[in-house]
Structure formats: structure tokens, C-alpha cells
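Quick check before the chapter quiz. The format below is the same one you will see on the exam, so make sure you can read both the input and the output lines.
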Amino acid sequence: MNCDQLATNPPPTHASFGGAGSAHAPAGGEWQPHLHFEDEHLLIAEKPPGLLCVPGRGADKQDCLLTRLKRTHPNALVVHRLDQATSGLVIFALARPAQAALSSAFERREVDKLYLAWVAGLLGQPKAAGEIALPLSADWPRRPRQQVDHATGKPALTRWQVLLHAPSCAGVPDHSLLELRPLTGRTHQLRVHLAAIGHPIVGDLLYEGPTAPRLMLHAAELRFPHPATGQQVQALSPAPFTGF
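Here is the expected output.
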């Protein structure tokens, strides 16, 4: 992307984020999550940024993706989660056997997860790819932050590929659009790994990322074996912030 393109396509503002990718979670009312896949065993829902996956502590944290889904799918069961600030695809089981099978698939690393993210700076060369292998643990004095911990941290591996470089011009700082594949599922893994190599995710104020209307991290693709048939299931969700 050249400077002229950046000048005519500035970074998104609050008004640029609509639908499932809005900058803030939809308020109560009748809003229901968009479903990308549904059968008698599972469903795949779209989570907007700012909405919890599951209820938190306190009356003000009961509105969440699971609560919304239970209005129409009262047997929905949690399989995995996304951070509150992250948008994108989330799997829910609709029966205990499916929940157990899907959880086992995550543990065996049979679920292929792909994220898209804008990060600060120009990472590598255009179309470059690499890995980040840094162990992670909780940063207890600064919870909910996580940290790189070579002494007692759990192994964590992230693969990345550069999709686009956006060099600084027209008042827009350097940014890179990345495709990210976490091979492990540690808390805040992508956010900590990218911050640790000097390229924090845009909008990630918890890890000193550049200010933005939202965290520029989106769970864009899931592929996994169906818990009942073994056939491959794939869901795709275009990122709502690729228009840099």
C-alpha cells in the first residue's frame, strides 16, 4: 500500500466499525449473534469486540455471548473463549459428548485457528513469515497481564506471516497486517508474543500498543474435525478492520 492509498484510506475511526465488528459490544435488547455454522452438535458464532464470551463476576458482567446464545439455544456449552476485546469466531457445543470431543480436539491441537491483526511497525519483509516461541505465565502483580517467563512459563508457539506493510505517511505510522496461527492456547498469547518482539497489536493498551478505537485482532478462520462425523468443518469471518 502506497502513501496515496493511505491518504485516501485513513485508519478506521469509531464510525468505521459496524455490524459484528463494531468497536463496542451491542447493548442489551434483542440483538443476537450471527451464526456461521449450526447443527444438532455444535454452532459457531460471531463475537463482537467488547462482549464477554462467558459471564464474569458481578451483575454488570452477566451479558455475554453465551447468555445471548442461550436465548435461542438453551443447551449451548462453552468449548473455548476469546478475549473480551477480540472479535471473531467462537465454537459452542450443543451436547455434552460434543463438548468433550471438541475440548479434546483443542488439547490435541486438531483445531486450526487463524487470526488477523494490525501491529505496530513494519515486521520483517513483505510476505515474510516466522515463529515466536516464548514461554508465558501470569504477571500476578499486574493482572490480568501475562508475561514472557523463561523460568516457569508454559511453552507457547505462534506462527506469523506478513500480508501487508503500510509505511508511515500522511500522518499514519508504520503498521503491518499479519496472519497469525497460535499452535498453543495460552492466555493473551498473540498479544504478549507480538509485544515481546516489539510489534504490539494496534489498540492493545494493556501491552502498550498504539491507540485505536478497538483491539485490531480478529479470529477469522476455524478448521476442525466434526465431533460426530469426523468430517472437516470450516468457518470464515472477514476482519472488520482490513480497510487501512
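If your answer matched, good. The chain has one domain: 15-236.
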